[in-house]
Design a protein that fits this description.
The protein is mainly alpha-helical. The chain is built from 26 helices and six strands. The termini are far apart.
Length: 674
């Protein structure tokens, strides 16, 4: 029983198995100490700088391991009792909820996917007059507006259907893909088929117009809002467009059963070529991934979303990662948390009585969406979503926590929010390049958690942020470990103790136990063994390309040679790409300098392995002696070659032109032309 005799609305439990994790971490720490002692004690007379480089790389890995241990030291998990909410609060006591759905480009983020997301949140089991849904269209596309107009009509059918059948998930696309037709009830089966056909008809209309590339004149006559696009010069040069498609205050805004509909608003923030619009953060201030393959060929955020954020919670509160997050309005408005404010918030009552018609409010609110509205104001600096960062979400969350607000992590058994992950290797690397650069930007700025977070963020939470802030610097130690040991094999330089030496034990222990723990952790969180192997592959690919280019680009920006650019990753693929993605065949996409780095490292390690195998065959009797001296380097080379198997496949065996040209080998068509 909680305070005032109420049953609690949620409970918090520490993660299980912490004794085993802490024992594992302590044993790895002891192993690291032995490795460091060996590096210092057995300092070679020749090739000393190579040895020093290995030692520095291992010190970096040890430091980063220390950061991950801090994050995972005390994770907590929360569960809710939503059935108790109605007994605690009357409907009128519930707060108003604004939900923001962001999109940027109908070519990369299909309008059908966007409207399915919008319909899913409109169908929430929440008083509709207290629910408002905003679609922020950073691409200012009339195709997206048309799709939202179709969704506003279909909502009159979909919302009653969701209430009647208690539909889960409430996204129509996901629901009809996963839920079979009810066969026990003829009436419900008939209604199920009607709703499905209505959704498919709407989807076909949207897709046909999207493929056409423009909204036909007869469709534009369906809503006056299309007249706004007469003044749109380009997606980067247009006035504010704000259209209230469903006004929740209007008594005529009802579904087919006569129940009220939630408010639905389309917004495209004003853009002018000479004025920086702050990308997604600017759009938000004006206002998880469900396509993963079974074995997650391009890796996933599984450990981050299911364990690391729980660890953040145990250290003081999870960071804001851009989606699936609920904010109090007061926390985003720049207010500092205090006990006095907490009392005021508890006494505050929600009142949504707003005077004026929808058309009047549309014109009145357009000024708020102008590209100059926040000039000489705290917006983007002290209020709202923060500007001047490629990872505006992380910076915004840190700002909120620095003002004394506490965040909590809740991960329900059924994912609350699903998105679309990249379906090509290049899109994945570009996405992580942006994230890595943004995190490094925070670390090297006035927003560094050790400065910005004081005094309201505990030290362990400040250190927790470093697990992401240090993504980009990880590239240097990783590149050294990937390249130098293989290079030294050619030169006959040993960088590790002999396999037969007792000093090899701590190396073997740290490597083996650390990887086994990683595998167990990944499978415990719902992954597969093959998925873990793909995760290790992507771990190396990202560190040797995405984070390398992120570090280089940020250094160039610091010296004024370039400016930040927001890269949108594709969420839709052509049929061939989609087919290979479903078959878990790595898709390389167009050529990129990142692939040059990957191909170079892959070939270098392959040549190193070939040289070792050839040398062993030639020498014969001395084979075991060579393995004893160079065993660790040979094993490392074998692992790197295994990780790079998709690269070799793309370079030497794949027949599709995209993979071969991307990896540095001319396509058959290009070869014929040559």
């Amino acid at each position: 029983m909680g305070k005032n005799g109420y049953l609690p609305l949620f409970e918090t439990k520490p993660a299980g198995g912490l004794v085993f994790f802490r024992s594992y971490a302590a044993s790895i720490f002891i192993g690291i100490c032995f490795i460091c002692f060996h590096r210092v004690s057995y300092f070679p007379v020749t090739e000393r700088w190579v040895w020093v480089g290995m030692f520095v790389a291992e010190l970096w890995f040890s430091f980063y391991f220390f950061i991950t241990v801090i994050v995972k030291w005390n994770p907590v998990f929360r569960s809710t009792f939503k059935d108790r909410l109605s007994s605690r609060f009357e409907e009128e006591e519930l707060p108003g909820v604004d939900i923001f759905v962001c999109t940027a480009d109908p070519r990369l983020e299909p309008p059908t996917m966007v409207v399915s997301t919008v319909l899913s949140v409109m169908a929430y089991d929440y008083p509709p007059h207290k629910l408002s849904v905003y679609l922020s269209d950073d691409g200012c596309s009339d195709l997206t507006f048309y799709a939202l107009l179709e969704a506003s009509r279909f909502a009159q059918l979909w919302l009653p259907f969701c209430r009647k059948l208690k539909v889960e998930p409430t996204s129509p696309e996901a629901y009809f893909q996963t839920t079979p037709e009810p066969v026990d009830d003829v009436f419900m089966a008939n209604e199920w088929l009607i709703i499905k056909k209505s959704y498919e008809d709407m989807k076909n209309r949207i897709e046909s117009i999207t493929s056409l590339g423009k909204v036909p004149a007869y469709r534009r006559k369906e809503h006056n809002g299309f007249d706004e696009w007469d003044f749109v010069l380009s997606p980067h040069h247009h006035p504010s467009i704000l259209q209230i498609l469903i006004d929740g205050r209007d008594p005529n805004a009802i579904d087919i059963e006569g129940k009220a509909l939630p408010t639905l608003v389309y917004l495209a923030r004003e853009k002018r070529p000479q004025i920086h619009h702050n990308f997604k953060a600017g759009a938000l201030n004006a206002l998880a991934f469900d396509n993963l393959t079974e074995n997650e060929i391009y890796g996933s955020l599984r450990v981050l979303m299911k364990l690391e954020l729980a660890g953040f919670d145990g250290n003081g509160g999870p960071c804001y990662v851009g989606t699936g997050c609920v904010h109090r309005r007061e926390s985003l408005s720049g207010m500092k948390y205090s006990e006095e404010l907490a009392v005021e918030l508890k006494a505050m009552k929600y009142d949504k009585k707003i005077i004026g018609s929808a058309s009047f409010n549309e014109e009145d609110c357009k000024a708020l969406a102008s590209c100059t509205y926040e000039e000489n104001t705290p917006w983007g600096k002290e209020k709202g979503v923060k500007y001047e960062s490629l990872v505006e979400d992380v910076l915004t969350g840190m700002s909120i926590q620095s003002k004394g607000w506490r965040s909590v992590f809740f991960n329900p058994q059924r994912e609350a929010f699903l998105g679309m992950g990249p379906t090509t290797l290049l899109d994945t690397l570009v996405q992580h390049k942006r994230w890595g650069e943004g995190e490094l930007q925070i670390l090297l700025s006035k927003h560094c958690p050790f400065v910005y977070g004081r005094p309201n963020m505990p030290l362990k939470l400040q250190l927790s942020y470093c697990i992401y802030n240090l993504w980009a610097p990880n590239c240097f130690a990783t590149l050294y470990y990937v390249f130098v040991p293989s290079f030294c094999l050619f030169r006959g330089i040993s960088l590790f103790p002999k396999i037969s030496s007792s000093w090899g034990i701590p190396y073997l222990y740290v490597i083996f136990v650390h990887r086994v723990h990683s595998l167990v952790e990944y499978v415990w969180l719902g992954g597969t063994v093959r998925g873990w192997l793909n995760e290790q592959r992507m771990w190396m690919f990202k560190r040797t390309t995405s984070y390398l280019f992120a570090a280089i680009d940020h250094m160039l920006k610091l010296f004024g040679f370039s400016k930040s650019a927001f890269a949108i990753t594709g969420k839709v693929a052509d049929d061939d790409v989609h087919r290979r993605y479903e078959q878990e065949i790595m898709e390389f996409g167009t050529w990129s300098p990142m692939f040059t780095v990957l191909a170079t490292l892959a070939l270098f390690n392959l040549l190193g392995l070939i040289a070792v195998v050839t040398n062993n065959v030639a020498i014969g009797d001395a084979r075991m002696k060579i393995f004893d001296v160079f065993g660790f380097q040979i094993l490392l080379c074998y692992v790197l070659v295994f990780i790079n198997l998709p690269i070799y496949q793309g370079m030497f065996f794949r027949k599709d032109s995209v993979s071969q040209s991307a990896c540095g080998r001319p396509s058959p068509r290009l070869a014929q032309q040559i």
